[in-house]
Amino acid sequence: MESAPASTPAVPPAVPPAVGRARTVAIIAGPVIGLSLSALEPGGLTGAAAAVLGVALWMAIWWITECLPLAITALLPIALFPAMGVATTREAAASFANEVVFLYLGGFLLAAALEHWHAHHRIALGVIDKVGTSSRRLVLGVMLATAFVSMWISNTATAAMMYPIAMAIGALFGAGQAARSQRVALLLGVAFAASIGGMATLIGTPPNLIMAGAARELIGVNIDFFMFLKFGLPVALIMLPVCWVMLVFVFHREEIELGADGLEVLHAKRRALGRLMGGERNVVIVFVCVALAWFFREPKEIGPIRIFGLTSVVKSLTDAGIAVIGGIALFVVPGRMRDGGTRPLLTWREAREIPWDVLLLFGGGLSLATAMESSGLAAQIGVWMGGLQGLPLPLVLIGISAATVVVSELASNTATASMGMPIAVSLAHALGQPPLMLMVLVGLSASIGFALPMATPPNAIVFGSGELTVRDMARAGLALDVIGILVIVGVVLVVF
Q: Which band of pLDDT confidence, cut at 50, 70 and 90, is reported for residue 384?
């Protein structure tokens, strides 16, 4: 993954890690509280179920405080479950090789190639260039470009890419309160659209894949790329225009017209990219082929029309297999550089920069979820939650979504999704509802974190600009949190 341009300020971490005394307290509190809970066997829990509850709380404390790297905390099941008699080392480690991990690995490799050849810049500038030069239209263009790119590469990488583009556009707004207000709207648009776009596709953001992996492990449901679009795409399609309207017509109503000078800046940026050719063209071709393969993996029936599916020829083909094939192809297919030389579309130099720690985090979350199910802890949680049966379903779903959003505002959305999946299954059994419904609800809600700078990496990136305050973000973000909860609950109720 390429570093940001030299003119871009350093990007702060999404959640400042605990330091000094606070870090020491968190490191000690995790095992002390977790092991004490395991020994006390609360709520009638015994044996493996109590042990898993203790480990889950231990991991939750370390994940929320980030006193250790998230990936290191994710390794606790391999270290602890064999010693506590919960699972063998082989069983605890099996989730780290779940096929969803390899699906995301392939997605990471595709994203790294797109970034290396700057194809994502061309997509972004192409969208922005078509919307006009008023500040409201530019916010819309930036948000559309950000959301589209974020559907395919990580939210963090998308925000880091769009941030300097947004800063360059914002500089054209001039001085004064109206100009500052529109710059704030532009930067918030980048952060919020990166999170919204990531919700649309299976590979858009880690919580989506954690939900898919947990669905396979816990309830035996295979969520492929096309199936996920039924949940994620409607939420993104509703949230994106609502977010834009809230930013430019409710919270930042001023409008500025840039005129010919602003349009020329955008044209100059596009001209600097030159024609689509060489390695950039080839990586786009590979990317499109992989995306089409994901979409057409299974045959589709639309009324009397049956659309061909790749599994008609290769029955065992999976989304993860397609992703790995695409990732390998990047190392095989050559690309011509602008100086005339050739090289593979991706080399290990770029590949080793992908977020390998996220893959470990996936594995740890799935290992914990599997142990909660196999130990009987998940079923017991369902018994504890049985009192919710008397409440109206929409109210219960709103409460679950809101609780997930609150945790996600304070902790990693990936860790939030990992902790929430087995609980979602238990709640579903207690409520007599399809487990997948609550898993989708929790998975999508984990990506709703608009109010605080530390809630998501995109929020932290734009906050690092110095152009906006915590109040600026919280004022719009809290409203969008509420809207996001209602939209997700509404989509879940309609789909299921």
A: confident
Q: What is the C-alpha to C-alpha distance for residues 266 and 251, in angstroms, rounded to an integer?
A: 26
Please tell me whether residue 67 adopts helix, strand or coil conformation.
Answer: coil
Contacts 24+ apart (CB under 8 A), 320-323: 320/99, 320/100, 320/102, 320/103, 320/106, 322/106, 322/290, 322/293, 322/294, 322/297, 323/102, 323/103, 323/104, 323/105, 323/106, 323/107, 323/110, 323/203, 323/290, 323/294
Average pLDDT over residues 21-41: 90
Range ranked top by mean pLDDT from 168-177, 253-262, 324-333: 324-333
Q: How far apart are CA 385 and CA 431, in angstroms?
A: 8
* Helices and strands (H and E) in the chain: how many: 23, 4
So what's the pLDDT on residue 260? 64
Res. 136: pLDDT tops 60: yes
Q: What is the dihedral of CA 77, 79, 84, 90, to 10 degrees?
A: 70
Dist CA 206 CA 414 (whole Å): 6
277 with 336: CB under 8 angstroms? yes
SS3 299: coil
In this structure, which amino acid lies at residue 221? V
Name 167's bridge partners: none
- Percent of the chain at pLDDT exceeding 90: 30
Residues with Cβ within 8 Å of 272's Cβ and at least 6 positions away in sequence, in order, are none
Angle at 216 between CA 198 and CA 419, to 5 degrees: 65
Q: Is 117 within 8 Å of 345 (Cβ atoms)? A: yes
Mean pLDDT of 451-477: 82
Measured distance CA(390)–CA(396) in Å, rounded: 10
Query: What is the helix (H) or strand (E) element at residue 305, kind and residue range?
Result: strand 305-307
Q: Is 395 left (phi over 0), alpha (psi -120 to 50) or beta?
A: alpha
- Radius of gyration (C-alpha) of the chain in whole angstroms: 23
pLDDT band at 347 (very low <50, low <70, confident <90, very high): very high
Query: pLDDT at position 313, please?
Result: 86
Give how far Cα 189 sits from Cα of 236, 241, 267, 339, Å.
14, 11, 21, 36
Residue in 190, 179, 177 with CA at minimum distance from that of residue 128: 190
Question: Which residues share a beta bridge with 306?
Answer: 301
Say if residue 15's pLDDT is above 50: no
Q: Cβ neighbours of residue 100 under 8 Å, at least 6 residues apart?
A: 209, 210, 212, 213, 216, 320, 362, 366
What percentage of the chain carries pLDDT values higher than 70? 91
pLDDT at 385: 67
Residue 369, CA distances (Å) to 55, 66, 133, 204, 422 in order: 11, 20, 49, 22, 5
Q: Taking 50 as the threshold, does the pLDDT of residue 86 lie above it?
A: yes
> With contact defined as beta carbons under 8 Å apart, do 152 and 291 qualify?
yes
Q: So where are the chain's domains? A: 20-495
